[in-house]
Amino acid sequence: MEDNIKGKVVIITGASSGIGEAIALHLAARGAIVSLGARREDKINKLAEQIIARGGEAIALATDITDRGQVKSLILHTHATYGKIDVMINNAGVMLLSKLEELLFDEWDAMIDTNLRGMLNGVGAALPVFKAQQKGHFINIASLSGYRVDPTSAVYSATKFAVRALSEGLRQEVKPYNIRTTIISPGIVQSELTGAITDAYAKEMVKGMAAMAISPEAIANAVSYVINQPDDVDVSEMIIRPTAQPY
User: Is residue 141 domain-resident?
Assistant: First the structure.
């Protein structure tokens, strides 16, 4: 298959660690130009320097995806620098598990603002560019929790179910503009995602899952696969989970 990655301009949110960092390193190694967005400016600057030192091309801009203006600035800066945007990867997210009875309203809001509104901010900022180009590709990182609900995951799952619904609606609406839309739903992956959990019960529950977690490079490989498809092929949805994961 002809390489459909080299030279593409790819924006990645949540690029400072975990899945986002792995995607950036993988795509840059394959010749993509990566634009890195995350709140931790020092980390994405170091990642951009690392990519450049390896012969790749990267830029970084501090971006809080809950801030619509910052997301728009990431898009405009990238477009102004390279004259195009080929792929928008809405990856940034938070997972703050707890039972509903704990009434952690602030954590519920954080998940809704980041996982749902943040993704919409990314879509809303990149869509006008893609329409003008008559070409583009959205890759929205959902979760296996977007297919199932477990104790402590009700709000997190709700946001990821919503990501899948919004992505499918987006796919149907943007077909006339030759825009591709992909949902990638990881299972248990090695990342910092569980580190932010404050609820003691949920913390203990996720400890038992760590042993089966797969590397974030597995998700990067999936992202690479869908981008590399010919422009008339839209891989709409993928689930990637550990072989050992029972659910």
Answer: yes
Per-residue pLDDT of the chain (247 residues; tens, 9 = 90+): 458 999 999 999 999 999 999 999 999 999 999 999 999 999 999 999 999 999 999 999 999 999 999 999 999 999 999 999 999 999 999 999 999 999 999 999 999 999 999 999 999 999 999 999 999 999 999 999 999 999 999 999 999 999 999 999 999 999 999 999 999 999 999 987 777 888 888 888 888 778 899 999 999 999 999 999 999 999 999 999 999 998 8
Helical H runs in the chain?
A: 18-29, 41-53, 68-82, 105-111, 118-133, 154-174, 200-207, 217-228
What is the residue range of 137's domain?
9-233
Residue 160: which CATH number? 3.40.50.720
Cβ neighbours of residue 211 closer than 8 Å, sequence gap 6 or more: none
In a domain, 24, yes or no: yes
Q: Is residue 229 part of a domain?
A: yes
Q: Tell which residue, 9, 160, 28, has the closest CA to residue 77.
A: 9
Number of domains in the chain: 1
Which positions are catalytic? 156
Q: Is residue 238 part of a domain?
A: no
pTM: 0.95
